[in-house]
Amino acid sequence: MQYLTSIIIGYLLGSVPTAYLLLKITKGIDIRKSGSGNVGAFNSITTSKSKFIGLVVLLIDFSKGLLTVYLINFFYQDIFLLPAIGICAAVFSHNYNPWLKFKGGRGLATAAGGSAVLFPFLLLVWCVLWVISFLYKNNRNVIIANVSATVLSFLIVISTINIAVKYTYPSAISNLELILFTTILLSLLLAKHIVPFKDEIKRLNLPVRGNKNAN
Fold it and tell me: What is the rounded CA–CA span in Å between residue 82 and residue 73?
């Protein structure tokens, strides 16, 4: 029953369509049909032309993950697996929103909010790697930085699992438990980045192909 309760808490909180509601109310815009169609903070900025709206979306989506962990820990203290399941459920429902015909965001803010409490080691590693990836060779590409940071974070957590497990709150009872959580959570993030990542790679290669054809 406690597993089901954790899933329900996470799923319901994660399913709140923050960007959709905010842009619909303030701008009369359906974010699913604007910009990239992604129901998240970055597309909120692009679509609304407002950094403030994007920041509000980011903070609320972050809070969905944060609140998921706090609520589950309130009911079931000192059990790592339950809030871990809750975060995964929250990210899943955010990414595949049941109220928006299973369209949604990419889950980064919600995952970050939950990880900030449950597994801050992962969040810190991801943020550092994201900055490095974003600035590397003046890349400045958000999607590529997202994917790079997510993949590299997984590798670092797995390779330092004996250290990483010490930074879980509540404590994970085993390395395997933490590995499963990290794998599922990061896989959910990557799943929503596959298509935009391919698009970005193609876009970045277009000038090169054009030069080859010209020669």
Answer: 8
151, HSE (Cβ side, Cα atoms, 13 Å): 11
What Å distances lie between residue 157 and 31, 180, 189, CA to CA? 34, 11, 16
Task: Find the helix packing angle between 81-95 and 108-118, rounded to 10°.
Answer: 170
Rounded to the nearest 10 degrees, the angle between the axes of helix 41-48 and helix 18-26 is 20
199 part of a folded domain: yes
d(CA 189, CA 61): 14
Rounded Cα gap, residues 75 and 64, in angstroms: 17
Query: pLDDT value at position 117?
Result: 96
For residues 160 and 152, the answer to whether their CB atoms sit within 8 Å is no
Q: Which residue has the tokens 């590299």?
A: 152
Amino acid at residue number 89: A
pLDDT tens, residue by residue, 61-74: 999 999 999 999 99
Specify if 71 maps to a domain: yes
| Residue 214 included in any domain | no
How far are the Cα atoms of 30, 52, 84, 97, 137 from residue 58, in angstroms, in the given order?
A: 18, 10, 21, 16, 27
Taking all residues of the chain, what is their mean pLDDT, rounded to a whole number?
Answer: 93
> For the chain, how many structural domains are there in total?
1
Q: The pTM is what?
A: 0.92
9 lies in some domain: yes
